[in-house]
Design brief:
By secondary structure, the protein is of the alpha/beta class. The chain folds into 2 domains: 2-168 and 343-374, Quinone Oxidoreductase, Chain A, domain 1; 175-318, Rossmann fold (3-Layer(aba) Sandwich), CATH 3.40.50. It contains 12 helices and 17 strands. Strands 3, 4, 5, 8, 9, 16 and 17 form a 7-stranded mixed β-sheet that branches. The chain has a 6-stranded parallel β-sheet with strand order 12-11-10-13-14-15, sandwiched between helices. Strands 1-2-6-7 form a 4-stranded antiparallel β-sheet, with no helix packed on it. Strand 1 and strand 2 form a beta hairpin. The longest helix is centred in the middle third of the chain and has 13 residues, at 170-182. The protein is globular. The protein starts with a strand and ends with a strand. Bound molecules: nicotinamide-adenine-dinucleotide, ligand 022 and zinc ion. The site of ligand 022 has 15 residues, from helix 1 and helix 3. Ligand 022 binds next to helix 1 and helix 3.
Length: 375
């Protein structure tokens, strides 16, 4: 069949809106009509050519929501008409990683997903007879896409697609980092570096679990009001701190008879390796944990003195907020529908597919928190 898609023909060029060919779902696969998709940093990272593993031509996009329109042989967990969110981190429940209960990084389709093809090694997308690569196993910048059954989460049908698509990446990553990766407890003091589409979700996750002190750090003063809206209690602009940022943050978080400072939990939501070091070093000695969420540029390295870790600080990273997609994503949709978390205010722009390149411009200009394309 034909479907309309925003195609990344080559790196560094705007996406082109074209009718592409899409084959039906094979065994264990489903076809989904995408109703909405967010535009996230990693789409931009790949499109720009900065990602050395980026494949072209491709159909990008990994933050979507839609309806199952067809299922291949052997599919049992979803049926036609089900509402789903595609998962760039699948959940097979049978691979050693899923069974370990220690990680959400399912390995069932890992190799082929990275090569831009379906688990059988072929692509369902083509243009004029030429193969188009899938992207992150999701390819949501198309009105229809084909995914493995293990890479969709079935969600309730009364939830609006143009909002819950954000749960396909940003919301789950931010809230999940708090709940699954850091396991923040009530009363904790936390610092969030970078108040964008991820950091604001970390803030609302911290508020949800009952953190006491939520310090937001951003070089852009316009982010103060954004942070406050979701539960931030203090704001620091590193450019306006006279002196050392880490010392300033440690001082702000002093407590107890010994008056030792440092946060219980810090989160990097910038992808900047200098910020990652600041985040680690502004943790409390003995128990502070720093969670890296930001994805750094290719070839970047992090550093600190071993003393920082010897004295009990913990450096961790998280992918998709440590969430097991098929299990956790439907619950997050429920939280949204029950008013426990907010999504609507963070979606600052809703665009048509024809205007998708404007979404990338808004991201570059720092004007959006999230742009969503509604089909
Ligand atoms: P964003 O651009 O919306 O937000 C980044 C924020 O950081 C901006 O507000 C910016 O002003 C601020 N910032 C930049 N430099 C800073 C500095 N030196 N100190 C303090 N603040 C600074 O980006 P986003 O959508 O929130 O994404 C953040 C990062 O998270 C990206 O690297 C993205 O790739 C990554 N990410 C990771 C995962 C994962 O699973 N690990 C998932 C989604 C996104
Ligand atoms: C999503 N991300 C950034 C912005 N939006 C993002 C990027 C990469 C990962 C997670 C989120 C990520 C962390 C660890 C891995 N990835 C490796 C997982 C593994 O090897 O098992 C990652 C993922 C998918 C892809 C590449 C890297 C891909 O499909 N190309 C989850
Ligand atoms: Zn993303």
């Amino acid at each position: 069949m034909k479907t309309r898609a925003a195609v990344a023909l080559e790196k560094g060029k705007p996406l082109q809106i074209l009718d592409v060919d899409l084959e039906g779902p094979k065994a264990g696969e489903v076809m989904v009509e995408i109703k909405a998709t967010g535009i996230c940093h990693t789409d931009e990272f790949t499109l720009s050519g900065a990602d050395p593993e980026g494949l072209f031509p491709a159909i990008l996009g990994h933050e979507g929501a839609g309806i199952v329109v067809d299922v291949g042989p052997g599919v049992t967990s979803v049926k036609k008409g089900d509402h789903v969110i595609p998962l760039y981190t699948p959940e097979c429940r049978t691979c050693p990683s899923c069974l370990s209960r220690k990680t959400n990084l399912c390995t069932a389709i890992r190799a082929t997903q990275g090569q831009g093809v379906m688990p059988d090694g072929t692509s369902r997308f083509s243009l004029d007879g030429k193969k188009l690569h899938h992207y992150m196993g999701t390819s949501t910048f198309a009105n229809h896409t084909v995914l493995p059954e293990i890479a969709v989460a079935k969600v309730r049908e009364d939830a609006p697609f143009d909002k819950i698509c954000y749960i396909g990446c940003g919301v789950t990553t931010g809230i999940g980092a708090v709940i699954n990766t850091a396991r923040v407890e009530p009363g904790a003091k936390a610092i969030v570096f970078g108040l964008g589409g991820i950091g604001l979700n970390v803030i609302q996750g911290l508020k949800l679990v009952g953190a006491d002190m939520i310090i937001g750090v951003d070089v852009n003063n316009a982010k103060r009001a954004w942070g406050e809206r979701f539960g931030m209690t203090h704001f620091v602009n590193p450019k306006e701190v006279g002196g050392d940022l880490v010392a300033h943050l440690v001082n702000m978080t002093k407590r107890g008879a010994d008056q030792i400072g440092g946060a219980d939990y810090t989160f990097d939501c910038t992808g900047n390796v200098t910020v990652m070091r600041q985040a680690l070093e502004s943790c409390h000695r003995g128990w502070g944990e720093s969670i890296i969420i930001g994805v750094a540029g290719a070839g970047q390295e992090i550093s600190t003195r071993p003393f920082q870790l010897v004295t009990g600080r913990v450096w961790k990273g998280t992918a998709f907020g440590g969430a097991r997609g098929r299990t956790d994503v439907p619950k997050i949709v429920d939280w949204y529908m029950d008013g426990k978390i907010q999504i609507d205010p963070m979606i600052t722009h809703t665009l048509t597919l024809g205007d998708i390149n404007k979404g990338f411009d808004l991201m570059h200009e720092g004007k959006s928190i999230r742009s969503v394309v509604a089909f």
